Amino acid sequence: MKKTLKKLWFYIEIIIFFPLLIPYYFTTEKELIKQDNQKWVEYLSIQSKNLIIQLITLLKNAPEYRNLYYFRLKKGNLTAKIISQILKIIYRPCGYFFLDESCNIGGGLFIQHGFSTIIMADMGENCWINQQVTIGYKDKTGRPKIGNNVRITAGAKVIGNIEIGDNVVIGANAVVTKNVPPNCVVVGIPAYIIKRDGEKVKQELR
Ligand SMILES: CC(=O)SCCNC(=O)CCNC(=O)[C@H](O)C(C)(C)COP(=O)(O)OP(=O)(O)OC[C@H]1O[C@@H](n2cnc3c(N)ncnc32)[C@H](O)[C@@H]1OP(=O)(O)O
């Protein structure tokens, strides 16, 4: 009985959240949405192989994903943009995770607990961002450019007109205000390199 009710509730939820898929059918941003979806499904271990079920599960259960989805739709064609703006009135975006419209962000972005996270920067593909992360301006001189496969972990601040190379990991609570070369792990305030190309090091950022 409990199993049947659970299944019934699952289908009811699918029906409730189905309208959120309407802009997906119209948008020019399908590829990016699919790339994001692939990462979220992998990291959150969503079992279904069906794209529709995957999207609905994420839009229903992961508020940060919903913000990312709206962000993608806003970058696309007018029809999908208008539909998503109307849907936003009913299916509210979450208020604690902010992804600025001015950013260009490659596919495959994953947000793990987006509480108090603000992203104002261009980013490459397959990045991972945690909670309490700020990526943005230090002053009026500009904001960061983040490479591909970059992981910015809990509490880190990445600010100013700097470049973060591909395959960089920024440790918890680090403050990064200088360029970070590719393939590095950085930690601390101010951030310094603890690993470069897999080797343990201790190097200042320049
Ligand atoms: C609710 C949740 O769980 S959400 C998930 C939250 N978790 C995160 O965000 C994970 C963040 N991960 C980290 O900060 C990790 O420590 C990493 C990725 C920076 C480094 O991990 P590793 O490469 O395994 O480094 P390792 O643990 O070997 O540490 C190397 C050195 O750096 C130091 N170190 C590691 N992380 C940090 C950090 N965030 N700040 C300062 N120093 C650090 C270690 O103490 C160690 O110092 P030692 O050589 O003097 O002993």
Provide the residue-averaged pLDDT: 96
CATH topology of the largest domain: UDP N-Acetylglucosamine Acyltransferase, domain 1
The CATH H-level homologous superfamily of the largest domain: Hexapeptide repeat proteins
Termini distance? 64 Å
Which ions and ligands are bound to the chains?
acetyl coenzyme *A
Going by CATH, the architecture of the largest domain would be 3 Solenoid
Specify the overall morphology: elongated
Please outline the major beta sheet: 7 strands, mixed
Counting helices, strands and paired strands, the structural category is: alpha/beta
Quaternary organisation: single chain
Unreliable stretches covering 5 or more consecutive residues: none
Describe the structure.
The chain is α/β, with parallel strands linked by helices and 206 residues long. It folds into two domains: 1-95, no CATH class; 97-206, 3 Solenoid (UDP N-Acetylglucosamine Acyltransferase, domain 1), CATH 2.160.10.10. Helix content is 35%, strand content 21%. It has six helices and 15 strands. The chain has helices at 2-17, 22-26, 30-43, 51-61, 63-75, 78-90; strands at residues 97-99, 110-111, 117-119, 122-123, 128-129, 134-136, 145-146, 151-152, 157-159, 163-164, 169-170, 175-176, 184-187, 192-196, 199-204. It has a seven-stranded mixed sheet with strand order 2-5-8-11-13-14-15. A five-stranded parallel sheet has the order 1-3-6-9-12. A three-stranded parallel sheet has the order 4-7-10, with no helix packed on it. A hairpin with a 4-residue loop joins strand 13 and strand 14. Helix 3 (30-43) crosses helix 4 and helix 4 (51-61) crosses helix 5 (63-75). The protein is elongated. The N and C termini lie far apart (64 Å). The mean pLDDT is 96. The site of acetyl coenzyme *A has 14 residues, from strand 13 and strand 14. This is Serine acetyltransferase. Keywords: Acyltransferase, Membrane, Transferase, Transmembrane, Transmembrane helix. Belongs to the transferase hexapeptide repeat family. It comes from Cyanobacterium stanieri LEGE 03274. It holds the Pfam family Hexapep.
